[in-house]
Amino acid sequence: xxxxxxxxxxxxxxxxxxxxxxxxxxxxxxxxxxxxxxxxxxxxxxxxxxxxxxxxxxxxxxxxxxxxxxxxxxxxxxxxxxxxxxxxxxxxxxxxxxxxxxxxxxxxxxxxxxxxxxxxxxxxxxxxxxxxxxxxxxxxxxxxxxxxxxxxxxxxxxxxxxxxxxxxxxxxxxxxxxxxxxxxxxxxxxxxxxxxxxxxxxxxxxxxxxxxxxxxxxxxxxxxxxxxxxxxxxxxxxxxxxxxxxxxxxxxxxxx
Length: 256
Fold this sequence. Notes:
19% helix; 7-stranded antiparallel sheet; 13 strands; 256 residues; alpha+beta; Glutamine Phosphoribosylpyrophosphate, subunit 1, domain 1
């Protein structure tokens, strides 16, 4: 099949995505990162999840895969003090004969969202019972995304940011829905906008970034731009319309 040159509009989007990725690489501490989009072939929905940490307690983690489930584990179980906010399912998948949905998040909300979608309760309603994490003084936002293949090959991407209100202990809930995304593009958001005391939470909309090459290429590209001292783990999942998904994992630390 003859390949047509990209349109001017597509070239501008590619330049914007590349510039956004460059700005992302300058952030010393984005915290936990989620990127969801479509690979260059258009055959696979893509999910990327990355973990960063600034202290030994939170760095004591690896990402592991079992039966298509991505989850965090302690690298050294003897060093775990409180597992409640650092041990959880990061990626889960549900599918039936017509639809397939993969969920990725930075906390225990992953399971609720995955099961809720397939009980017909939807993405946003399942997150209205959740709020930001109780880790004062940072009050880390909860970030969640769902990537779905629907009947007939249509796609749907849902994203959510649950952030502490600037006025009180209330929760600001932000929801985004994308019916489509271009080949080789993804939407990115993360828990923090950089370093600080307390850490500044992410604000604004998810932004476009490139997703070029295969799963290994994408994993390597984003692992290399994460701060070397703070990066902990990263995973990239390719989700085809039909057939099994595949997950690539990079861990800084080894499980004891």
